[in-house]
Structure formats: C-alpha cells, structure tokens
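Let us work through a complete example step by step.
Step 1: write down the sequence.
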Amino acid sequence: MKKMMMNKKLAAAAMAIAVLLGAAPMTANAKEITENDVVYDADDESGLASVISYNGNESKVVIPASVGGYRVCHIGEGAFNKNQDIQYVVLPATIKTIGSSAFSNCKNLISINFPSSLESIGSYAFTTNHSLKTIKLNRGLTKINECSFQLCIAAETLTIPPLVKTIPDHALHGMHELKTLRFCNGVNKIEETAALNGYKVSRIIIPPSVKEIQEHALGYRYYSPDYALCSKVEIYGKSGSEAERYAKENYIPFVEFDFAYGDVNKDGFVDAIDASAILSEYVRRSTKGGTDYSKADEVRADVNDDMSVNAIDASLVLSYYSYASSGGQGTPEEYFFLS
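Step 2: predict the structure and record it as tokens.
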C-alpha cells in the first residue's frame, strides 16, 4: 500500500514538473506589445509576432510587417471578432495564417487583402461578414477550413486557388449574392454542402483536376428539411469530367468549357489580338445589341467576372499580354482571378 501511495505521489510530482517545464518557455519568451491599439503576442525565440486583439475603433486598420523588431506572421484566433468599426484592413506580405474566427461577425468590413505570403485561413475566419463584396484570394493559399467564408452575403465572385486541394463542408455556405464560383485547376475535392445556398449563382466553373464532388456540394439551396436546385445555375467543365458527372446526376445544365481565359480567338495565346476582339465585341453590343457568343465564349472573355464583356476585359487581356511578354509566369487564370 505504501509503495502504491509513493508511486502516486511520484507520478503527481512528475506531472507537475512537466507542466511547469512546458509552461516555462511561453512565460520566458513571450510578451505583449501594443501599437496603434493592435495587441501582439511576440516571441523572443522565434522572432515572430501574432495579432491577438484590437482595442481601437478606427475604420481602417493597417497591420505592419514588423513590430518591435518581431515579424508579424499570424492573425490570431478571434483577433477582430465582432468588431463593428473596422471597414478596411491592410495585411502585410508577412502574414502566413489567419486564425479561426479572426474576422468573424465584422459586419461592416468592406475590404481586406490576401497577401501572397498567406498559406491558410481558419474555420469561421470571415463568417457573417455582410459587407465584404470583394474576396480576391492569393494564388499561394493552400488551405481553407469549414465555414471560412460562411454568410459572406455580399460577395459576387470567388475563385479558389489551385493549391487548395479540398473545399470542406460549409466553407462557402450562404454566400447568397455569389454569381460566379470558380475552382482553379489543382483543386481535387469538394465536400458535401461546401457551397450550399448560393441563391444567385449562375455559373460554377470546375476543372478536370476535381475528382470528387460530394452530395449537395454545389448548386443547391436548403430549406429545412429539403434541398432544392438553384434556379439559374450552370456548371462549366470538360467533357467526361467529374464536373459533368455531377451536373448530369443532379439535373444541372452543363456547358463544355476549355478554361482558355482571355483566348477568345482560340489560337492558344492570350495577346493583343484577343484584346482587340473583345473590344470589337463590346462596340458591337453597344451599337447593335445582341451577341453571337456562346456561353463558353462569354466566360472566356469576361475576365473580370462582372457578367459582361466590355472594355475593361479588353484592357485586362492586354495587361496580361504585356505581363507574359515580359517574363511573367502566372497562368491567365491566376493573373485574372487571384492576387
């Protein structure tokens, strides 16, 4: 009995020591820094800092690349949660992660950039952001989580970058104003109810890299207890792909599409000839009305996703031609639709 009691005491002591040792580095190396009402958790060992809260009431918040000599790399969990004052947030090109609920319920947030350094966006990170109309994700993003953009009801277009392999359950749920939803070539899987309740969605563009689309993942609304197809939705994709399988099995119109964004004359290049052709089409529509473009032609030419073919599209195509001619390596898909 004495031996058993002694073993219990030793075990308890060992656990206490382990807890103390585990906590010691955090106490010794971490400290808080406050600058312009933004509170940071700075770590001496790594030289990195995380945004942990905001105590101000400014409409615009600019996060610096460094604070007190520490590189700012993370927006922490719930850092701006329920802040009703912020409208504009500027993130530096050092941010790697945006934590869970970091900007959730920021109902007046109009604009936030997604820097090239960003790798992951946590669950519920932007949920219930009712004013965030433009969401232009960065091409290097590798992960979004469940409910990341749930109820971003003002956003009209969204393109998922190629390194995001899986679109999880409810990640894009309740984006009611979304008209164009595009998955870049590289995405592999779209989980059940990932983009449920896109009331106004009219085109969902799915590349052949997508090998699995689960039940009610796309093109559906939900009224308890039933699912119903969105009235105007069409799926664009390659013939024989998972996109076509999903469309046909769910009675969604399917449009064959070659993903040649900007290449309106279908010669394999995006250049000044395409820009001129788009401009001519815009003039023709403006003066005569109507168009001979197919639905696929329309998507090919509408490189700013405003559901129209106009001079802005021509200008963007010309910009891409200049970019590619000077050595730019991004694909037209990345150039037009990602940051």
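Step 3: interpret the result. The mean pLDDT is 91.
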